[in-house]
């Protein structure tokens, strides 16, 4: 990358420094801070961090309502029922996923659906800021440019066959990687080919976009970049670097 140009951009305030709560985008950000599921001692169904119509025109209100209140809530309810009275009730999601092969498909599918959607909602916002300086420099190091990262991530999401998710993750050796997972699987699960801490995700199940886009998954994915909540991606990135965000 062009280091001199990058530093001068930071100096001009075009790129925010990676200090949570102090960046320009953080100050005007009204969305609540994301909470690492690691810190949740009880599995709760989280509030949607914005109004149903907040993502218009890119994702319509009816889709958000059904997706959150029916699909996500359904995953949560079935996961809760499956773990009721077991040790998993008080186990953080990343620990459950780290040993997921030991549990039933019900725990895997509904636990994955519960967790994946929490991240999905938190990484959407009508006013989500920009990648902060350290995240941006890591994206440039791993993908050459932010634009190229978006192209690669979009391609992974567009070409994933059937239902699933595309992810930006940080691997154990601090590399950023783009991966996909089928169904409600995720990169924290013990059988994932490439494991890592999720930083950004997109749901490409048809229920995420079909009401508005029908079969045009590519349009939904292209529009996704208008509503990415980079503030939460920045937070997850900094947490994953420090080791405080495990999943
Ligand atoms: Mn979904």
CATH architecture: 3-Layer(bab) Sandwich
Helix content: 40-55%
Assign the structural class, choosing from mainly alpha, mainly beta, alpha/beta, alpha+beta, or little secondary structure. Answer: mainly alpha
Strand order of the largest sheet: 2-1-3
Radius of gyration: 18 Å
Number of helices: 10
Overall geometry comes to globular
Beta fraction: 5-15%
Q: Biggest sheet, in brief?
A: 3 strands, antiparallel
Mean pLDDT, to the nearest integer, reads: 89
- Quote the distance from N terminus to C terminus: 29 Å
Strand segment tally: 3
Which runs of at least 5 residues are low in confidence (pLDDT < 50)?
1-8, 22-32
Entry summary:
By secondary structure, the protein is mainly alpha-helical.
Set out the fold topology.
Layout: H1 3-11, H2 24-28, H3 61-83, H4 93-98, H5 105-122, H6 133-143, H7 146-159, E1 164-170, E2 176-182, E3 197-203, H8 210-213, H9 217-224, H10 230-242
Antiparallel strand pairs: 1-2, 1-3
The structure holds manganese (III) ion (MN3).
Overview of this protein structure:
The chain is built from 10 helices and 3 strands. Strands 2-1-3 form a 3-stranded antiparallel beta sheet, sandwiched between helices. The two termini are 29 Å apart. Helix 3 packs antiparallel against helix 5 (105-122) and helix 6 crosses helix 7 (146-159). By secondary structure, the protein is mostly helical. Bound molecules: manganese (III) ion. Manganese (III) ion (MN3) binds at residues 67, 71, 117, 203, 205, 207-208. Residues 67, 71, 117, 203, 205, 207-208 line the site of manganese (III) ion (MN3).
């Amino acid at each position: 990358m062009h280091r001199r140009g990058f530093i001068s951009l930071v100096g001009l305030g075009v790129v925010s420094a990676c200090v949570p709560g102090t960046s320009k985008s953080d100050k005007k950000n009204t969305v609540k801070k994301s909470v690492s599921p690691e810190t949740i001692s009880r599995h709760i169904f989280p509030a949607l961090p914005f109004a149903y119509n907040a993502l218009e025109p890119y994702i319509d209100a009816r889709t958000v309502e059904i997706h959150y209140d029916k699909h996500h809530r359904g995953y949560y309810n079935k996961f809760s029922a499956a773990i009721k009275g077991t040790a998993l009730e008080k186990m953080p999601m990343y620990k459950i996923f780290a040993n997921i092969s030991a549990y039933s498909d019900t725990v895997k599918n509904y636990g994955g659906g519960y967790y994946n959607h929490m991240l999905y909602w938190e990484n959407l916002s009508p006013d989500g800021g920009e990648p902060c300086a350290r995240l941006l420099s890591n994206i440039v190091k791993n993908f050459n440019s932010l634009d190229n990262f978006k192209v690669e991530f979009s391609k992974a999401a567009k070409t994933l066959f059937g239902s699933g998710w595309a992810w930006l993750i940080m691997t154990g050796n601090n590399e950023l990687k783009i991966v996909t997972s089928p169904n409600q699987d995720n990169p924290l699960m013990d059988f994932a080919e490439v494991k890592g801490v999720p930083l950004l995700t997109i749901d490409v199940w048809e229920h995420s976009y079909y009401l508005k886009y029908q079969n045009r998954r590519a349009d939904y994915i292209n529009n996704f970049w208008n509503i990415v909540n980079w503030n939460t991606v920045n937070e997850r990135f900094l947490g994953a670097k420090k080791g405080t965000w495990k999943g």
